[in-house]
Amino acid sequence: MADVQLSVVERQLGAVYDAMHAARAGTTIVGDLYGQAMGDLYPVEVDASSCSDWALLGSMVANLRMRPGQRLVDVGCGTGGVGLWLARALAVSVSGVDVSATALSLAIGRAGEFGLPVERVEFRVGSLGSTGLPAQFADGLVCVDALGHEKDRRRALEEIRRVLRPGARAVLTSGRSRVSPALPPWSEQAQGTGLILEAEEERPHEPVVWQRVYRSWVEHEAGLREQLGHAQVDSMLTEARTRGPELRNRVAVIVTLRRPEV
Ligand SMILES: C[S@@+](CC[C@H](N)C(=O)[O-])C[C@H]1O[C@@H](n2cnc3c(N)ncnc32)[C@H](O)[C@@H]1O
Fold it and tell me: Source organism's superkingdom (predicted)?
C-alpha cells in the first residue's frame, strides 16, 4: 500500500502527539488517573489516551456488526489499545492509522499483549483526511477521540466513506457544545458526505469523567511533572484549564455511520 505524504499541519500535529506518547511511554501515572476517574468502567488492558471505557467498547462491538476474518480500521489509533482489543474480541484483523510515528511504534509492540498474530495487525502513518488505505478496504472503522483534531471534517468523512466497503459501518466518538455547536448536526454531516447516520448515542457520563480527569491532573501536578516532564504537564494543565470549564455544556456522543450499499 502507498505511503502517505502528510501535510505540514499534519506533521506538526504528529510532532505534538509524538512528544505526548513518548513522555507517557513506560509510565503508568496517566493511565492510573484515568482509571481512578472511570472507576470500574476503566478497561485497564486497553490503556487508551482517551475516555475509552467498557461502555464505549461495548457500543463499538454492537454497532460495527462485524464477522470473524473481516478487516477493521482504527484511525487516530494512538498506541493501538482500542483497535487491538476490538480485533481480538471480534476475531478480525486491524489496521491502525495515526499521524504520530511514535504512537505507532508503541502500538506495534503491543500486538503480542493481545495475543494477536502479526498477520492480523498493521500500523501505518496516515491521517483522517488521507489514510493511504485502498478504497473499500474496511469492513468496519473506529475513530476514538481523534476526529476533533481534524480541521477539515468534510475531508475526513469523505475519506472514511472511501475506505469503507459498501454496507460497512464506522463508529466515531465526537463532542459538541450544547449552547454553540461549531458544526451542523450529524444527520447533515452524514448526508453531505454520502453516509447514513445509523445511530447517535449520548454519553452523559463522559464530560463528568473528564472533569474528574482534569481535576486529578491539577491535584497530581508534582507527580506528573516528575514522570512526564514540564512541557507535557504544562500542556495538560492548559487543556484542563481551558477545556474544563466548557465541559458543563459538552455533549459527548458515539456516532455510527454506514456507507450505503449503492
Ligand atoms: C486522544 S488520542 C486517542 C488515541 C486512541 N484513539 C485512543 O483512544 O487511545 C488522539 C490520537 O489521534 C491522533 N490524531 C490526531 N489527529 C489526527 C489526524 N488528523 N489524523 C490521524 N491521527 C490523528 C493523535 O496522534 C493521537 O494519537
Answer: Bacteria
Share of the chain above pLDDT 70, in %: 100
**CA 165 to centroid of ligand 1, rounded, Å:** 23
What are the boundaries of each domain within the chain?
A: 8-258
Give the integer Cα–Cα distance in Å for 79 and 46: 9
Nearest residue to 123 (alpha-carbon basis) of 55, 77, 66, 190: 77
105-118 pLDDT, tens digit per residue, is: 999 999 999 999 99
Ligand 1 site-directed mutation target among 47, 49, 86, 94, most atoms within 8 Å of CB: 49
Q: What is the pLDDT of residue 2?
A: 66
- Answer left, alpha or beta for residue 47, where phi above 0 means left and psi between -120 and 50 means alpha: left
**Helix, strand counts (H, E) of the chain:** 10, 7
CATH 3.10.450.350 is held by the domain 8-258: no
